[in-house]
Design goal:
GO terms for molecular function: oxidoreductase activity. This is Nitroreductase domain-containing protein. It comes from Dissulfuribacter thermophilus. This protein has a single domain, classed as NADH Oxidase (3-Layer(aba) Sandwich). The chain is built from 8 helices and 9 strands. α3 packs across α7, α4 packs antiparallel against α7 and α6 packs across α7. By secondary structure, the chain is of the alpha+beta class. β2 and β3 form a beta hairpin. Bound molecules: flavin mononucleotide.
């Protein structure tokens, strides 16, 4: 496969493979760590619902029925359901020393993934861009307005995003993971994001909502939209959520 071997992806995989003979000789890049949480302290807050009594689901059925769904009705979802989705994807479930353990696993418990939300059809939440404050279990308002058209355009024109109730956007603060794991840490960052998205997919299915992962987007446009630099923090994954028939 000569073509594959010429790609930077192949070189990256080769360069970051653990090898018994060289594991302890490898020079790891010296990358300073970053703060474990991002907060927009002065932002207007939207409190999330901490209780969801009576909502339960059969895990085996949810696994059997989960699909990527793109046919949203444009009806609103409730703030209670949004709260469950945020908790299911990145809720704090335990504390171990300085680590706030979550619903999804993370390499080294370093949690480099930040969650942003474009809400357009969520009861009790004004249309806008929000950041999810994991520790405080609340949303921080970054800008108000209807942005799903912009998100659709940024995601290579994928039209179903316009009909969603909200879109989750996941970024990575790369230093959090790469300061410990060096170049190999990048692999872990994408694995972390996959776990988070699958939790969202399963929770959406359990709530009879439709969800679809999206990895095709113009990177710098999305970073600009979020107000992040694409170096220290960069967008890596999205998922649409909406009501379905
Ligand atoms: C990493 C990743 C990226 C994806 N990106 C997109 C995307 O940009 N647009 C889209 O419509 N679906 C996207 N999907 C959804 C896949 O098309 C879908 O998972 C696949 O067709 C299998 O169908 P299922 O999820 O219903 O089992 C993505 C899925 C993954 C895991």
């Amino acid at each position: 496969m000569p073509d594959l071997k010429k790609t930077i992806a192949y070189l990256y995989m080769e360069e970051t493979k653990f090898d018994r003979d060289t594991l302890y000789e490898r020079v790891r890049p010296n990358i300073l760590p970053a703060e474990p949480f991002k907060r927009y302290k002065d932002a207007e807050k939207v409190l999330l619902a901490r209780r969801w009594d009576g909502k339960s689901a059969d895990l085996w059925k949810v696994l059997q029925e989960r699909r990527s769904r793109r046919n949203y009705t444009r009806a609103a979802i409730s703030l209670g359901d949004l709260s469950i989705l945020l908790w299911a994807s990145q809720g704090v479930t335990a504390q171990a020393g300085p680590y706030y353990l979550r619903t999804a696993p993370s390499a080294g418990a370093l949690y480099s993934i930040e969650t942003y939300l474009v809400a357009e059809r969520v009861e009790g939440v004004k249309p806008g861009l929000y950041h999810y404050d994991v520790k405080g279990f609340q949303l921080e308002t970054l800008k108000k307005g209807e942005f799903l058209n912009d998100i659709s355009r940024i995601a290579l024109g994928q039209g179903f995003l316009r009909d969603a109730a909200c879109v989750f956007i996941w970024t990575s603060v790369l230093r959090r993971t790469m300061s410990k794991y060096g170049n190999r840490g990048l692999r872990y960052i994408f694995l972390d994001a996959g776990h988070i998205c699958q939790n969202l997919m399963l929770a959406s299915e359990a709530l009879d909502l439709g969800a679809c992962p999206v990895a095709a987007f113009f990177d710098m446009e999305l970073n600009e939209f979020l107000g992040i630099d694409g170096i220290e923090e960069t967008a890596i994954y999205l998922a649409a959520v909406g009501r379905i028939e």
